[in-house]
């Protein structure tokens, strides 16, 4: 009996020893370690083999066999991407915020339960928070924008900026004389993705007060973006007001000449933003009040350098550069056109401009409350035809 016990004990010790050796020297990375598995889930094949490791007791360095793709697949237990809705609103926007949130929850988020982030340059009131939370069971966070991210920076020539805004007001340039609007455009161009409440996310869906979602959204746009290697998504494309961006393209050309390493040479969307191979700006841009996009793209070295370069010119205050052309130009120049996606199936309206799915199949599937004939897509003010000409799926 004692002999059998000793045999079992020795066998267990031997098995445990072999397991320990395998774990120590095996090239296979433990499943679930995001630092070593590429998106495809393939096991790196360049690691030192078990036999070689046994011959050389030095701990092997394990590297992925392929480059990490631009978007890492990170889904939670319910299959959601690492994503959030972001709404920039003031306390006075409560009614419009509630209208947008109610439609977004009814048409999409009641099935997916993604979190919401609300940002304001001042504290939200308790009543604002209470009414917003009453409309959704999802997590909701309210944040104050750091003053250095919102207000006109000290290095701006205030006298020059004030005179420029007065001139734009006299010319009836939309929002040209509104300092808060200039602050907002600069914040949305270079700072919203740096907010502490946003830092933990990889993806965002920008939502404005007083927007409408015309159709049911049964598929998860975030998962679509991740799984199809998309970076920037939009619904409407429009022409920018010329008086707001008089010098913008000149500075963009200077940037391209100084930092050619950040410009994608092939298969970009330059033809969408320029009719003459970059000589001039077509004024076409993705209307950024609706965006589903990668936060990592805005945080990248390329975009950060681009924003800092433009910001240093003072154009957000000496002119009225919007975040929409800034985002659009960056996406068109720095991404493959295949990484930019038109969400044809998402019926959407902001102000008087509306996108309605153009095919009967999508219109019926979404139970849409919009008219395809009234859709803005192919009006004279739309850049949709220029996007279609790129032939992007």
Question: Could you characterize what this model shows?
Answer:
By secondary structure, the protein is an alpha/beta fold. It folds into 2 domains: 2-55, no CATH class; 83-388, Spore Coat Polysaccharide Biosynthesis Protein SpsA, Chain A (Alpha-Beta Complex). Helix content is 37%, strand content 12%. A 7-stranded mixed β-sheet has the order 3-2-1-4-9-6-10. Strands 5-11-12 form a 3-stranded antiparallel β-sheet. Strand 2 (116-120), helix 4 (126-133) and strand 3 form a beta-alpha-beta unit.
Protein topology:
Layout: H1 2-25, H2 50-55, E1 83-88, H3 94-109, E2 116-120, H4 126-133, E3 140-144, H5 147-150, H6 158-170, H7 179-190, E4 203-207, E5 211-213, H8 221-227, E6 232-234, E7 237-239, H9 248-258, H10 270-273, E8 284-286, E9 291-294, H11 295-298, H12 301-311, H13 315-318, H14 323-334, E10 340-342, E11 348-350, E12 353-355, H15 360-365, H16 384-388
Helix pairs in contact: 7-14
Keywords:
393 residues; Spore Coat Polysaccharide Biosynthesis Protein SpsA, Chain A; seven-stranded mixed sheet; Glyco_trans_15; transferase; Nucleotide-diphossugar_trans; Glycosyltransferase family 15 protein
């Amino acid at each position: 009996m004692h002999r059998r016990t000793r045999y079992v004990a020795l066998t267990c010790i031997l098995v445990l020893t072999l397991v320990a050796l395998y774990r120590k020297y095996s090239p296979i990375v433990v499943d679930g370690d995001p630092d070593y598995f590429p998106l495809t889930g393939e096991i790196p094949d360049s690691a030192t083999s078990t036999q070689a490791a046994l011959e050389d007791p030095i701990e092997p360095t394990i590297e992925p066999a392929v480059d990490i793709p631009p978007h890492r697949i990170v889904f939670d237990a319910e299959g959601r991407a690492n994503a959030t809705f972001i709404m920039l609103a003031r306390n006075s926007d409560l009614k419009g915020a509630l209208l947008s949130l109610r439609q977004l929850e009814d048409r999409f988020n009641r099935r997916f339960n993604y979190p919401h982030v609300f940002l304001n340059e001042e504290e939200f009131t308790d009543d604002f928070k209470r009414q917003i939370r009453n409309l959704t069971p999802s997590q909701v966070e309210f944040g104050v924008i750091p003053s250095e991210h919102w207000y006109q920076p000290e290095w701006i020539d205030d006298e020059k900026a004030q005179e420029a805004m007065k001139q734009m007001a006299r010319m009836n340039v939309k929002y040209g004389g509104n300092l808060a609007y200039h602050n907002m455009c600069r914040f949305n161009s270079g700072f919203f993705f740096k907010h502490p409440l946003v830092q933990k996310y990889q993806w965002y869906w920008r939502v404005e007060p007083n927007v409408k979602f015309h159709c049911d959204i049964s598929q998860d746009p975030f998962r679509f973006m991740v799984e199809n290697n998309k970076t920037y998504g939009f619904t409407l494309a429009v022409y920018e007001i010329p008086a707001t961006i008089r010098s913008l393209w000149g500075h963009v050309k200077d940037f391209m000449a100084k930092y050619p390493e950040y410009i994608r040479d092939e298969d970009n969307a330059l033809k969408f933003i320029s009719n003459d191979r970059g000589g001039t700006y077509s004024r076409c841009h993705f209307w950024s009040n609706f965006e589903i996009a990668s936060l990592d793209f805005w945080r990248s070295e390329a975009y950060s350098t681009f924003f800092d370069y433009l910001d240093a010119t003072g154009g957000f205050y000496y002119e009225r550069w919007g975040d929409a052309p800034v985002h659009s130009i960056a996406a068109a120049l720095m991404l493959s056109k295949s990484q930019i996606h038109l969400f044809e199936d998402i019926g959407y309206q902001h102000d008087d401009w509306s996108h309605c799915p153009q095919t009967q199949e999508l219109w019926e599937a979404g139970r849409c409350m919009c008219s395809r004939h009234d859709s803005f897509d192919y009006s004279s003010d739309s850049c949709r035809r220029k996007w279609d000409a790129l032939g992007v799926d």
